[in-house]
Amino acid sequence: MSALSILFLASCSAWMSQAQTEFKRVAEANVTLPCHHRLHLLESTSLDIEWLLKDSEAEPKVVITYAGGNIYNDLIEEQKGRVSFASNFQDGDASLEISLLQPSDAGQYTCKVKNAGQYEWSHITLKVLEKPSKPKCWKEGEMSEGKEIALQCNAISGTMPIMYTWQRIDEEGKIGSLPPMAHINLSNPAQIFMKNLTWVATGLYQCTASNEAGQENCVVEVTVQYAQNFGIIAGAVCGVMGGLALIFLVVWLTIKRKEKRKYEEEEAPNEIREDAEAPKARLVKPGSSSSGSRSSHSGSSSTRSTANSASRSQQTLSTEATPHITPTQHGHLEMDGRETEPKKPNPANVIKAEATAMMAPAQSRAFQTV
């Protein structure tokens, strides 16, 4: 090899050793890290290619290597089966291909090519971007008029920085601006405050978490309860309770009244009426079975009959001569506390009483004869 060729390779390798680029890729995507060299022009049997990764750890790790005609690509456990040479590395293209990127693949990669005592290297910084996880939305505070609430949003994973944006969804499903009472917390954009709530704040609110890799969102619903609704509900409940109490009272009084009426009906036959008439005496006819026994005592019976007839005649005369007052009338006079004037005797009644007295001795003699 001429001295000019060696000088060219040395200058080229010096240039490539200073090249450093940056790649940003989204997780789960594929990436190809370039590495072009000219050392393949030298002896092919002594070609040596090596990719190194320096991440958070102090010492770099070997990703893939070609040496002595063999390829070794299972040196890092997390990258097994996902790393390979992208092209024909023996023809000057030793680019590295990584499939299904993971956050652990991020770091600084170095491509080193050696051949016949010469070497070339290049540095590439790979950033694996992970889009935010689906955020969680929630609300805090009292959802009633005049009160204050806070809307919160948070994505637990994703490449930083993550930006948060709040928007409102109208009834037609369109994205719109926040209501006037909503204010974003400048120290924490994932939170907004709404003070002095009114019915205008009712609706759906969407939080969007985004970064370079993508975005995800969540939705929370705000329903402001009107103050007058509480009064209406309370009045309705009180009215229903009062109506039930009134119905219960009416039913209870009706049952009690029926029980009282039934009790009075059962007790009425057991009471003794004050105005009931005394049983009437039965007259025995002269031809009855008792005539024999009565005849044996004719002497004494005739004597008693004559005395009784005279006594009855005197009672009849005294009764007709004095005012006739029944027991019921006498009780009424005592209850009223006043007396009434006695009625004058009726001449017809007096004559009738005298005739009765004259007939009494004749009747007694008839009984004695019997």
Could you please describe the fold and organization of this structure?
32% of the residues lie in helices and 27% in strands. It has 370 residues and is of the alpha+beta class. The strands form four sheets. The chain has a six-stranded mixed beta sheet. The protein has a four-stranded antiparallel beta sheet with strand order 10-11-15-14, with no helix packed on it. Strands 13-12-16-17 form a four-stranded antiparallel beta sheet, with no helix packed on it. Strand 10 and strand 11 form a beta hairpin.
List keywords for this structure.
elongated, 6-stranded mixed β-sheet, alpha+beta, disordered N terminus, 27% strand, 6 helices
